[in-house]
Write a structure and sequence with these properties.
Helix content: 55-70%
Number of helices: 10
Largest sheet: 4 strands, antiparallel
Distance between the termini: 52 Å
Amino acid sequence: MHKFIPCVLTLALAGCQLAPEYQRPDSPVLESYPDAESLTDERGFVAAELPWQDFFADPQLQVLIGQALENNRDLQAAVYRIEETRGLYRVQNAERFPSLGIGADATRGRFNQGTAAGVAGRGGSISETYSVSATVSAFELDFWGRVANLSTAARAEYFASIEAQRAFRLSLIRDVATTYLGLREAVERIALAEATVISRREGVRIAKVRLDAGITSALDFNQAEALLTQAETQLASIMLARAENQNLLAVLTGGVVAEPMPEPLSLEQQSSPPALDAGLSSSLLVNRPDILAAEQRLIAAKANIGIARAAFFPQVSLIGSFGYASSELDNLISSSNETWSIGPSITLPIFDFGRNRGNLTVAQARDNIAIAEYERTIQTAFNEVADALAGRRYLAEQVDAQRRNTETLQRVVNLARKRYQEGVVNYIEVLDAERSLFDAEQAFIQTRRAEVQNLVDLYVALGGGTLEQ
């Protein structure tokens, strides 16, 4: 008996493996990004190794990201999901091993001796029984790897939850940075709009004086008022955008904003973060947590195929016990009082009306789905990096062109005002020049924000800071 149990356990734990062998699918994208080498003259930082604290220079943004990582409710839920899947994995992994229990029992009772049938006598005897035993409760002998694959699938889901949490963490950093940059853009555009409103109110006042003096017509006055109304409308719209960004930041940071906040940097000051090295697309497979999570789900899908295949074979379980039983407590533990039992059970599927075949079909389909989702995740990551690399070049060129355009339009406005004062042109030309300048200045701020946002997108797309977590 003592030699039998280890042999059975060894056979049970060895088992067969019916799950397909996992092999990482070939990457469905190019090895290198388009024009990646021409976008930088020197090797930059590896984004995955660069902590977000070193990438974002704005002290106010650093505070907000730190608060979000500590207080964001969705991130907290993602952390708790890790705990949940860790517990489920532990429960499932425990099924691979026998559940051992030790019990002890003692009974004592009086047995009456009847003098006639159905009539109890006054005499009787007292019986005492003592026992102690170790039991194995319904332990499945995993000949076909069903239990092992259940454990493998649970472990893969656990690892996937960890990567999903890391992916959400990186996404949260991007969301906070994006919202904050939107807020900084709104603040700069509001400052420009307010200065423009003040200037145009003064223009309306002057136009009114000139109208009352008969120097200009009512047309010039109404055109000046229309230009003022345009600036006031734009100002109200930007203030709404600022309020919405502030509200969203409160949600992302968990509703807690530290006071007082450090002074922020302007958009121009934030446009020169550390240079990043894009590397090869294969680096995304180990740096992007969303790709790692998709791969773990693919591993779980492979294990589920093994579980479905094992259902076609007999399921063997073992119930056993070993112990001692005696009517005397003094010599309970002795070889003469040994008791043992083994109760194997076998469940053999015969008629299931296609249930097992259907489960296998489902498992195989989910495996194909997991492969497609894994490849799609890689393609999405490659596309995000390629777009961000393209933006790094062309947005810089756009910002430079927008700056030169704004400077040119400012000279046009100055010249139009001078020519109007000299009576060479109508006031409509001054209004058109000022309208064009205002639109160009607003667009310049928006383009500069887009350039900074692109740098954030590149950092996140390359798995920024994930190796530091």
